[in-house]
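Give me the 3D structure for Mariner Mos1 transposase.
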Amino acid sequence: MKKSAAEAHRMLSNTYGEAAISERRCREWFQRFKNGDFDVEDQHGGGREKVFENAELEALLDQDSCQTQQELAGSLRVTQQAISKCLKVMVMIQKQGHWMPYELKPRDVEWSLFACEQLLARQRRKGFLHRIMTGNEKWVHYDNSKAQKKHGDILAMLPH
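Predicted structure for Mariner Mos1 transposase (160 residues):
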């Protein structure tokens, strides 16, 4: 009950639909299995992988730092693995959906220092406890007579 490559491809297409491998790839695998090569990894096509510069990737990240590795790979027409390696070389990490350098730039360090100094100065001017409103009353009474009138008017309109 041997199947041909075409029959196997039909079965794969029926099962996996668009995600199935191509008929040509199915035939190649059949030939490899027939020759005793049971390695299921695709062989490198011999073509040279596209080389891209870090500057191209940096330019894309400057335009939109929210892109995924797959989107970046599609834009540069390279593999996702190549993008991943390049991001590691550039020491870029993804935080909260944005690609950013692992170490802060000097201007970012200065901005963080400035923000901390401002917060400390604000604290020294007037302490936290002085900004809290306190009172000695345990109960608060709120008179909302308008709402009570409207509620009473509605009850008066209902048939008894």
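The mean pLDDT is 78. Let me know if you want a second pass.
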